[in-house]
Design brief:
Length: 116
């Protein structure tokens, strides 16, 4: 089963940018649709963005126009470019196939903190 390792998080000021990476242990092309998810303190994990094998994207409303999901199949890596970050974007970010559930294996995630 493919495993994922997220990286690229950190502390950034409001309005700043970060690019998250998701490295897969196997072929992400074979997985099909991939997604980014996040879990803020005290909240359930939520969907952020999805990228299909064919390249179509979908975003949760709160990040539309600010976040961009992409993938490099040759590198088995997926990315999330996050611009105009807001404090409410603070969360641990995870990647996985889409759709995913709590029953699926999840990585450690990468912490994103937006604060002045």
């Amino acid at each position: 089963q493919v495993q994922f390792v997220e990286s690229g998080g950190g502390l950034v000021q409001p309005g700043g940018s970060l690019r998250l990476s998701c490295a897969a242990s196997g072929s992400i092309f074979s997985i099909g649709a991939m997604g980014w998810y996040r879990q803020a303190p005290g909240k359930q994990r939520e969907f952020v963005a999805r990228l299909s094998r064919g390249g179509s994207t979908m975003y949760t409303d709160s990040v539309k126009g600010r976040f961009t999901i992409s993938r490099d199949n040759a590198k088995n890596t997926m990315y999330l470019q996050m611009n105009s970050l807001k404090p409410e974007d603070t969360a641990v970010y995870y990647c996985n196939k889409w759709p995913s559930s709590s029953a699926d294996p999840w990585g450690q995630g990468t912490q994103v903190t937006v604060s002045s």
